[in-house]
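Ex. 9. Protein: Progestin and adipoQ receptor family member VII, a.
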Amino acid sequence: MATMVMESIGRVFISRQQIRQVPRLLTEAAPSMPGTVTDSEVPAYFRERYVSTGYRPLKQNWRYYFLSLFQRHNETLNVWTHLLAFLLLLVKLRQLADTVDFVNDRHSWPLLILVLSSLTYSGFSVLAHLLGGKSELCHHLFYFLDYVGVAQYQYGSAVVHFYYAVDETMHRSMQGLFMPTATIFSCLSCLGCCYGKYCNHTQPCWVRKVCQVVPSALAYMWDNSPVAKRLLLWSNDDLAVAYHFGQVAFFLSCSFFFTFPLLERYLPGRCDFVGQSHQVFHVLLSCCTFCQIHASYLDYVHRRQLYLRLHESGDAALFVGLYVFTLVGCALITAFMLKKVKHVLDFKMKLK
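Predicted structure tokens for Progestin and adipoQ receptor family member VII, a:
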């Protein structure tokens, strides 16, 4: 017994010793990693309003940008907030797989779409904030992928709300209309965000915000209309309604911080590394996602008799098909907008 205890203590000690060596190993792996620079040392399209320091230099090798995950710069927390959310979503998916038969139960597929779309948006967000600083082309490419992830998440929200959260009256009036419209709104949201990024520095800042916020707001209002009706008819017997309220509250809060960068505006120079509104937006959006997943799981478990009566056996497969259609549509939009970016960059090179 004593030997087993000593072996366990030895393993813990070795693990702690290895953890302490991580900073040294990173330093040895990248002994010449350049430090951060100010906003005046990077092109205008990389600058964030009211953030003046902490930018990574451009045109470094890929290794530098991957290792910058462990470097202090103004994107570090943007990367880590969604990286941690991505890892927690994987854990959540594993937990759900223990109780939900995603293979044989077609009625569980909307819930799976929501989780997969959540993994998509958080994963693409990590790539955008981690690798988008290499060049102007990479900046547009990875942020366009980020917008594809956002559009997928919007569709995932729509499908779980219409499948599990809707009531009979709304289902009867929206059947055949709700999900095709949600698909269109998701694609329009992707297009608006990509176009806003494309014209980011040739148009005033408010143009970018309008392109990003208006389509996303329309999609949100449409996708969450079944939940809004549930909240208006709040019942203490409804186990999921509190989590639906939580996801709405978190989403409205994160939308505020995404639209209005108040923290860095009124605390100039103090939020360059920690405290940016976009970092708060990431945290609140992740909280919204986990509330939404749990609310949808509760609806899947406790409202089964209702949605079995409302939805035909082929509905779930149809919605999976629309999910794939949305993904393909957003990919085509991204390819089109990236082609326009390349034309602009080629024109700039010719002028030089």
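Check your answer against this statement. The domain at 74-351 is CATH 1.20.1070 (Rhopdopsin 7-helix transmembrane proteins).
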